[in-house]
# Entry
Amino acid sequence: MNRTRKGFTLIELLIVVVIIGILAAIAIPKFNDTKKKAYITAMKSDLKNLVSAGEAKFSEDNSYATWTMPTSGSSGVTITPGTQSATGWSATATHANAAGSSCEIGVGTGKPANLAEGEPGGATCK
# Structure
């Protein structure tokens, strides 16, 4: 009686399940880090758009003092205006899902220290 069995044994199936579990345990933290990077990229993008809007207003009035800075950006980004004068301004962006991270930007006399003018940055903007 020569029977050939088709299918997998229980041990083979358990090994496959364990391997899939190990791969999932490695992949899940990497996905969380990717989401935080996406939120930070959204903050940087909104701040760069803010620079464009500010420069458009400056070209009209030759001053930043009359410009009303928006307080919200795309997809949950909150913009907090900083200093604002006729010759410069600054702002900070945060995101509710990127706790502990924020990005700063500034133009003219409002430029934060250690940042290039019109470029987002900051200690937690990574």
